[in-house]
Specification:
alpha+beta; 3-stranded antiparallel beta sheet; 5 strands; 33% helix
């Protein structure tokens, strides 16, 4: 989560550490701005693939994983999305 207290760590050491360990996809969730940034690892570095506030977010690494962006921020949408995932 990209809160003011963790944003520097999320965009700095954590991002570098995940890249060094080959994590192919990295999301930064901004609860204040209610946006999600999706980064993909290419040649050892993360590149911004998508920044969204609405619609659906599709993992480029976990085949078939899709989540409505609103489900990340709204409890009722989260419950609906979870029910669909588990169905």
């Amino acid at each position: 989560m990209a809160s003011k207290s963790t944003e520097k760590r999320d965009r700095g050491i954590k991002l570098q550490d995940y890249a060094a360990h080959g994590v192919d996809e990295y999301w930064i969730i901004d609860p204040e701005g209610q946006t999600v940034e999706q980064y993909l690892l290419r040649d050892g570095n993360y590149n911004l693939y998508l920044k969204v506030a609405n619609g659906e977010l599709n993992s480029q690494v976990v085949r078939g994983f899709t989540i409505p962006v609103r489900a990340i921020f709204e409890a009722s949408a989260n419950i609906q999305a979870l029910a669909q995932i588990l169905a």
